[in-house]
Write a structure and sequence with these properties.
About 35% of the residues lie in helices and about 20% in strands. With about 270 residues, the protein is an alpha/beta fold. Belongs to the DODA-type extradiol aromatic ring-opening dioxygenase family.
Length: about 270
């Protein structure tokens, strides 16, 4: 019998996370061996933005994309040579229905993909499909697409959203090393809503909500959260981990499903 996989939202932060000693990366490295081993992984990445259709990587051996500038050569030398997953593409087509999904062999595994999968599954021996953030969809439509894809979890597919709850590079350099009140408030507000499954609180923000405006801004790093939440199954527990804040960037991450791996690592789970 195929084991039901969790869905996760993982704060991926700076590429430097991959080559510096930090608690967030260490936690992911410890978490990976404790997670059930998936047959394939679907990763919704903040670093692949489309407008019109949702794209999915369809190459047999997608390339590793180093979509950043000015970092140490060690990062550009990193590869994540996982294979594609043609059977998963067929299932995505069948489940997505009238929400258009387009196969795209030109894309590969960007930092939003390998930046979270490399510490979790360093051998790169699990087939992976990357999915774009389609800006033509409303927040509710992102949740609907995620709900349509949720049955994949019962078929051995792990769904991973990769982004950040608070992500504002324009403000990051000015706030690095601090804990701005607006960022902390938004971080805590989102976690409360995730635990309570309050989807309206995660998709509808008042025009004067300055914390949301600063945290979400261009939205591509926030929307992958809706895929992890939208793929939630009945009976899922919710776990919170890597709940850290540095200026205008959070690494807050969530697991939906069996939270035993988090308990094993000493991280408290939220309410079911």
């Amino acid at each position: 019998m195929t084991q039901t996989m969790p869905s996760l939202f993982i704060g991926h932060g700076s590429p430097m996370t991959m080559i510096t000693d930090n608690p967030e990366r260490r936690f992911l490295e410890a978490l990976g061996p404790r997670l059930p081993r998936p047959e394939a992984i679907l990763t919704v990445t903040a670093h692949w933005e489309t407008n019109g259709a949702t794209h999915v990587s369809s190459g047999a051996r997608p390339r590793t994309i180093h979509d950043f500038r000015g970092f140490p050569q060690e990062l550009y030398d990193m590869q994540y040579p996982a294979s594609g997953a043609p059977d998963l593409l067929d299932r995505i087509d069948a489940l997505s229905g009238d929400l258009p999904v387009t196969r795209d062999a030109s894309w590969g595994f960007d930092h939003g993909v390998w930046g979270v999968l490399r510490p979790l599954f360093p051998e790169a021996d699990i087939p992976v499909v990357a999915m774009s953030v389609n800006h033509a969809l409303s927040a509710e439509a992102h949740l609907e697409l995620a709900a349509r894809l949720a049955p994949l979890r019962r078929e051995g597919v792990m769904i991973v959203g990769s982004g950040n709850v608070v992500h504002n590079l324009r403000l990051y350099h000015a706030t690095h090393g601090t804990r701005p009140d607006w960022a902390s408030e938004f971080q805590q507000r989102v976690t409360r809503a995730v635990i309570a499954d309050d989807r309206a609180a995660l998709t509808r923000f008042a025009p004067g909500d300055q914390a949301a405006a600063k945290a979400i801004n261009s939205a591509e790093h926030y929307l992958p959260l809706l895929y992890a939440l939208g793929a939630k199954l009945e009976g899922d527990e919710v776990g919170v981990f890597n709940d850290t804040l540095d200026g205008a960037l959070t690494m807050t991450s969530y697991l939906f499903g069996d939270t035993a791996p988090l308990h094993a690592l000493g991280e408290p789970a939220g309410a079911a």
